């Protein structure tokens, strides 16, 4: 398999000169007359883009679709996959005419639109990969044992995030709701996710606000505790597919092939979630248990290529946040969103809307999971079992979390779980007689 490129570590503000300096291979993908090279940018570690990236690449569906096309038009197609840690370098490559298709989160998508217009290499949003209608894909975490319990405790503290990312947007909005000024009350540090994770471990950052799959990974490894669940904002967040406008116009058949392939990868993930999680884990080096937290049958993300109205509306709400940060001047969201290619490539395709998450148990040696209607039923099933991973939804936000990392509450014989301790304490304060218990005690006491 072609080796992946090393992730760039340049801050977002430095990527604009990079994009300006790069040359162009010309519109519609590079070609020597007989072979058309299509360059696709993706983020292997950002696992809500897997249906347009890691999983799609491993399945080979895009290459299959293009091979079928080659038999009709006599052109040979070559796909070049380029892997990055964030969406910013993908945007730099696209706006330089060096990349044709890319996938990234909602805030980076808006920057993609703004940079494309500014550099006269406009882009279009043509599909969604994974989404969460409440915003549960982003989380603020602290180191285990940290004295910080609420967002208000971050006042005067150093918080690592990736400026211009959806996780940064979550942090800014959450701090404001907590009565803090993001520009004055916290010391925000712009870092790549991996650098921020190291800073948290070293104690040079008091908290980390990041996107999937970093919060879940650090929690699974015992290196972080959730401080704030992004779903408390109750604002949709998602990842999507963007394409260079010139490429889409000159090679519509290639874009159609990509979108058909993405649809097939989405079907694969939804029908074989455990196998898909194992595949993504193998490709990325992430634990399969972490991949499944987000991409599983009850996972935090819902996968559906459709450009749903509520997701487009959320993009419009994101624009002012980026404008205030000085990252964009303005974005015409309606002009950026183009649903026509998906309707053309996959007519009539639709998936059911996301329902309420259920508890789920993955036993060692099993290639399937069991779902439960209540956290109590999950606790009973865990007793004495060889557990690979157990997942439980937050009692208020519905965000799925590792059962052994959740904060548990017993209330009159019923059990509830919360992503954060603040959420559990909020519940207990309003329900006399309820109490917070450790996961091990919950498993021991459930009856």
From TrEMBL:
Gene3D superfamilies: Periplasmic binding protein-like II. The keyword Ion transport does not apply. Keywords: Signal. Residues 90-274 form the SsuA/THI5-like domain. Residues 1-21 form the signal peptide. The keyword Nucleotide-binding does not apply. It comes from the Bacteria. This is ABC transporter substrate-binding protein. The lineage of its organism: Bacteria, Bacillati, Actinomycetota, Actinomycetes, Kitasatosporales.
